[in-house]
């Protein structure tokens, strides 16, 4: 009774104090960027950002007391409740399919492009429930929300790479925040993940830019991925950003025309503007040294970007771009003059392979090529489920076969615990200018219990991508390597019954023989000799 | 050429070997059997499932018990003392079988605080807290008895009332069918409306339930069907059949899923600008005056057609929001099982009277106890029926605690309604927890045939020689004994 009265007073207080964020303090902005890449493909990026004005993440210290009522207009309620329930300060979830090709496509607009599912969160400490308990519940809640197998991101895959996955702003609470990170490279993103994604948007896929999100076309793209990013902006509030990136290939339809339009990429056009979007923009990166034409007339055109304001443009809006010149595949890759807009091209090029044909040992080999003219430091992160274990003493760093141990520093290593904890290897790597650093380490492959094998055991295990983050000079943007596939010793799964039958036969035979000898009555028979 | 022993060599007689003596051989065979028989209890223990005995007789004895609430009504300021006996008789005729023991008496010094009071008033009937003012006369006595009976045991439609839970979530949703079509309601002053219309109710119901409130606005909430167009251009209509499929749960995300508490939904539905006014049709197909309907045990829906002069999307008009939320408040009371006061009795409309609250407490306690008993009987029955079902310590503990809570409930029924309700809720939740204990399913799907299939290849091949030698040895022993007897004779 007293409790309710307190809440009544509090809610009255907040109403009077103008805290009530039920209207006007939530803003929704949507943006679509379209860019033609050097190899003729078209990169599209949707970004839907909702800011809950004036809000702060829930202090985990208050988890034991009743939460305020949650009233949302634009902010997604289902997500807001999850964030409040587990007092998560910062959260990033990405679900991607395909391999982002940094060498051809440069840096992506959204940096989280690791293959499969990746989830990382900064969670404040100090609640009754520990960080790990809330991390587990958060995983399960998000798995339910997005219909993804995020429940498999369990302790076997969870690590805490604080150097590589740095947070945005964190509230100043007495107890520190902790990071939890897990990735599941074998997760496939599909329509069943996009449907709940669209339901988090105020206009769903029925109006505004989101109406272009046509699953039939997006999941047919060369590369596609979605992301959910929750962060706290101290000046604005809690921001939820939903992103969708896709790389489509206009050259698939015609081998030498890079022309694209919404109709050709998404098979849709924007029929209506989203009525609650504070801003709704389409930004098209314009080619630099090439002839082109763009339709319709952009709302503004500056610094190489054509911007369309969806609310002002005539509907249906179908932006298209034509190139009079034919596309010459090999030439365009080589010649920067024919390339389109200056794009944040990655000066780092990485190749990572797993060598060794046996099922118990192998060698991880990573080539990192630095094309820049300056020495660069990168944070290098390897996370592995315990099934692959590093022999740290075999770690070598070399340039042109000359061992350079001085290039590796600040190694932090969390050894794996079989059947229970993942391995994390984190170090700072110095990349001299215009050089290729070769890093090798011996690994051992675990022998699994037969219940630990996945249903498609013969396929092998996907290993998470390594992550590199340039420190200092270059743009501090994460670079993901492609995933690896490791082949572990796999049993014949009809084995258990065979073993039972075989063992039983053997035991019965031994038992029978011993028993027989012990109880047999021996007599000497004299054979009459003739 | 066969091997021939030379005549001069004598072999040791095998029957002289240590283990070839009759006694030792029989000892060896017997020890095998001893080990086998001694291992049976261990095998039995390690393969059997834990089945603790449940307090079956206590569960069955619950069936005979019924919750009885003593109710005391004191007549104040009424000179005719003979009225009390007559009134008690009349009330007993009306609600005798409902578990209430009603006693009516005249005001005297031994006046207990908990009792209900009825005082005479000239012409109006007015209920407040546990007090009723009524024009008490001999002639109005049957009507007074009716009124009191209805106040004590109100008639409610039990199909509408949501299942009891100590905590509910109230999810308020402003649904625009299609905001992009224009003239939508894009925001509402939900905090103000809740604190004005609902908090007093929630506050007075705090003895029964805790509430968590959440709200959201949706801008695109398509219906799964097309409302029919009315002939004379009077807008669109929802037929009674349409109302049953009104909720489009595939497209509308109506509440979050962070907890398992039951959710009561309240939806303000704004039809698309092209489908206004949207009206609810009666069974004859004519528009009814009501724009609200209730989905039993699920929630309430209000269809709000913004005024046609509205040009663009806007905030919810405060006057309209008031009427929407007063409807929500009524719907909430219906869903929670709060009965209206009888017709003709006036109340201070903003708060619930003690009569209503007590009636609800009694009703919920009766429901919970009946359901707890039913659940306990089901547990006992299912454990009896399925012999492979394990019954662990936690299940037995829950069943015992549930029974204890039920026993406490019977004793506290005469002293405190709040305690009775809480004990009945405890009994129900403990019984449900025992019923849904995941440990009870553990070995259900590991049939005996499966075990035999694993054991047979081992045991059959090992036990057959054991039986054969034992049988042979027993036969030999009996023959020897016969021979010895024959020699003695």
From TrEMBL, chain A:
GO CC terms of this entry: GPI-anchor transamidase complex
Keyword Membrane included in the entry's annotation: yes
Signal peptide feature range: 1-22
GO annotation, biological process: attachment of GPI anchor to protein
Keyword Transmembrane helix belongs to the record: yes
Transmembrane segments: 497-518
Source species, domain of life: Eukaryota
Keyword line: Membrane, Signal, Transmembrane, Transmembrane helix
Alphabetical list of Pfam families matching this protein: Gpi16
Name under which the protein is recorded: Gpi16 subunit GPI transamidase component
Organism: Mycena pura
UniProtKB/TrEMBL annotation, chain B:
Coiled coil feature spans: none
Entry's transmembrane regions: 27-44, 452-471
Keyword Endoplasmic reticulum set for record: yes
Top-rank lineage group of the source organism: Eukaryota
One annotated GO biological process: attachment of GPI anchor to protein
Subcellular location: Endoplasmic reticulum membrane
Keyword annotations: Endoplasmic reticulum, Glycoprotein, GPI-anchor biosynthesis, Membrane, Transmembrane, Transmembrane helix
Membrane topology value: Multi-pass membrane protein
Functional pathway: Glycolipid biosynthesis; glycosylphosphatidylinositol-anchor biosynthesis
Principal localisation: endoplasmic reticulum
InterPro entries, alphabetized: PtdIno-glycan_biosynth_class_S (IPR019540)
Cellular component annotations (GO), alphabetically ordered: GPI-anchor transamidase complex
Pfam family, one: PIG-S
Family: Belongs to the PIGS family.
Protein name listed in UniProt: Phosphatidylinositol-glycan biosynthesis class S protein-domain-containing protein
Source species of the chain: Mycena pura
């Amino acid at each position: 009774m007293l409790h309710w009265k307190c809440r009544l007073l509090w809610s009255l207080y907040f109403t009077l104090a103008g805290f009530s964020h039920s209207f006007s303090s939530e803003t929704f902005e949507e943006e679509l960027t379209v860019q033609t890449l050097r190899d003729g493909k078209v990169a599209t990026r949707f970004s839907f950002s909702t800011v809950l004005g004036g809000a702060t993440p829930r202090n985990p210290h208050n988890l034991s007391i009743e939460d305020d009522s949650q009233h949302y207009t634009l902010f997604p309620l289902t997500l807001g409740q999850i964030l409040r329930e587990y007092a998560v300060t910062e959260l990033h979830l990405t679900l991607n399919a395909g391999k982002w090709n940094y060498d051809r496509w440069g840096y992506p607009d959204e940096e989280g492009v690791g293959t499969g599912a990746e989830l990382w969160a900064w969670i404040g400490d100090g609640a009754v429930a520990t960080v790990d308990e809330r991390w587990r519940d958060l995983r399960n809640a998000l798995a339910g929300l997005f219909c993804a197998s995020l429940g498999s991101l369990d302790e076997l895959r969870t690590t805490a790479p604080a150097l590589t996955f740095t947070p945005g702003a964190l509230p100043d609470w007495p107890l520190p925040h902790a990071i939890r990170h897990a990735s599941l490279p074998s997760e496939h993103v599909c329509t069943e993940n996009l449907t709940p994604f669209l339901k988090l948007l105020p206009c769903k896929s029925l109006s505004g830019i989101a109406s272009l999100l046509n699953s039939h076309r997006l999941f047919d793209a060369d590369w596609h991925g979605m992301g959910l990013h929750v962060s706290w902006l101290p000046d604005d509030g809690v921001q939820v950003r939903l992103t969708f990136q896709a790389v489509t290939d206009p050259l698939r339809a015609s081998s030498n025309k890079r022309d694209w339009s919404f109709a050709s990429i998404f098979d849709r056009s924007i029929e209506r503007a989203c009525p609650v979007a504070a801003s709704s923009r389409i930004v098209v990166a314009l080619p630099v040294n090439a002839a082109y034409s763009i339709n319709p007339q952009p709302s503004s055109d500056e610094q190489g970007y054509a911007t369309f304001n969806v609310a002002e443009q005539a509907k249906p809006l179908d932006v298209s771009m034509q190139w009079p010149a034919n596309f010459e595949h090999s030439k365009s890759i080589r010649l920067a003059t024919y390339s389109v807009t200056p794009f944040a091209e990655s000066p780092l090029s990485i190749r990572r392979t797993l060598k060794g044909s046996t099922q118990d040992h192998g060698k991880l080999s990573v080539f990192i090529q630095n094309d820049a003219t300056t020495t660069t430091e990168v944070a290098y992160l390897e996370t592995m489920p315990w099934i692959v274990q590093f022999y740290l003493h075999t770690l070598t760093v070399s340039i042109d076969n000359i061992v350079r141990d001085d290039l590796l520093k600040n190694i932090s290593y969390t050894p794996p615990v079989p059947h229970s904890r993942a391995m994390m290897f984190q170090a700072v790597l110095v990349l001299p200018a215009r050089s290729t650093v070769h890093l090798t380490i011996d690994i051992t492959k675990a022998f699994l219990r037969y219940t630990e094998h996945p249903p498609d055991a013969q396929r092998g295990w996907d290993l998470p991508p390594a992550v590199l983050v340039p420190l200092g000079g270059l743009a501090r943007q994460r670079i993901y390597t492609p995933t690896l596939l490791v082949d572990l010793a796999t049993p014949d799964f009809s084995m258990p019954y065979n073993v039972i039958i075989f063992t039983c036969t053997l035991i019965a035979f031994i038992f029978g023989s011993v028993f027989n000898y012990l109880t047999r009555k021996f007599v000497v028979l004299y054979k009459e000799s003739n | 050429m066969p091997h021939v022993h030379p005549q001069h060599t004598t072999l040791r007689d095998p029957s002289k070997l240590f283990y070839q003596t009759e006694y030792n051989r029989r000892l060896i065979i017997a020890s095998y059997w001893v080990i086998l028989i001694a291992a049976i209890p261990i095998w039995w223990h390690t393969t059997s499932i834990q089945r603790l005995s449940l307090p079956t007789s206590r569960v069955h004895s619950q069936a005979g018990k019924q919750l009885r609430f003593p109710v005391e009504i004191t007549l104040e300021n009424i000179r005719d003392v003979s009225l009390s006996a007559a009134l008690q008789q009349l009330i007993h005729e009306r609600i005798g079988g409902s578990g209430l023991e009603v006693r009516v008496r005249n005001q005297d010094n031994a006046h207990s605080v908990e009792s209900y009071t009825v005082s005479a008033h000239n012409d109006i009937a007015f209920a407040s807290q546990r007090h009723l003012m009524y024009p008490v006369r001999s002639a109005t006595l049957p009507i007074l008895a009716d009124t009191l009976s209805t106040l004590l045991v109100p008639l409610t439609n039990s199909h509408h009332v949501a299942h009891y839970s100590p905590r509910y979530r109230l999810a308020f949703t402003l649904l625009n069918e299609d905001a992009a079509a224009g003239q939508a309601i894009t925001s509402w002053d939900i905090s103000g409306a809740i604190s004005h219309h609902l908090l007093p109710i929630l506050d007075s119901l705090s003895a029964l339930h805790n509430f968590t409130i959440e709200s959201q606005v949706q801008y695109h909430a398509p219906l799964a069907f097309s409302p029919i167009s009315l002939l004379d251009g009077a807008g669109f209509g929802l037929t009674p059949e349409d109302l049953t499929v009104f909720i489009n749960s595939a497209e509308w995300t109506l509440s979050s899923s962070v907890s398992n508490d039951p959710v009561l939904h309240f939806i303000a539905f704004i039809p698309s600008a092209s489908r206004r006014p949207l009206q609810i049709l009666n069974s004859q197909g004519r528009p009814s005056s009501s724009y609200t309907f209730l989905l039993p045990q699920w929630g309430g829906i209000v269809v709000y057609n913004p005024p046609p002069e509205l040009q663009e999307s806007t905030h919810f008009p405060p006057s309209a929001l008031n009427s929407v939320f007063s409807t929500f408040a009524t719907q909430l009371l219906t869903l929670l099982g709060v009965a209206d006061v009888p017709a003709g009795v006036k109340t201070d409309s903003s708060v619930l009277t003690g009569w209503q609250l007590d009636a609800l407490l009694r009703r919920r306690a009766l429901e919970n106890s009946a359901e707890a008993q039913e659940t306990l009987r089901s547990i006992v029955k299912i454990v009896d029926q399925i012999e492979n079902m394990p019954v662990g310590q936690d299940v037995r503990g829950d069943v015992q605690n549930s029974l204890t809570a039920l026993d406490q409930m019977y004793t506290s029924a005469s002293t405190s309604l709040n305690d009775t309700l809480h004990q009945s809720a405890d009994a129900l939740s403990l019984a449900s927890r025992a019923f849904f204990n995941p440990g009870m399913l553990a070995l259900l799907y590991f049939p005996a045939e499966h075990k035999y299939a694993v054991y047979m290849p081992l045991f059959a091949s090992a036990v057959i020689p054991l039986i054969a030698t034992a049988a042979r040895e027993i036969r030999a022993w009996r023959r020897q004994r016969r021979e010895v007897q024959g020699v003695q004779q």
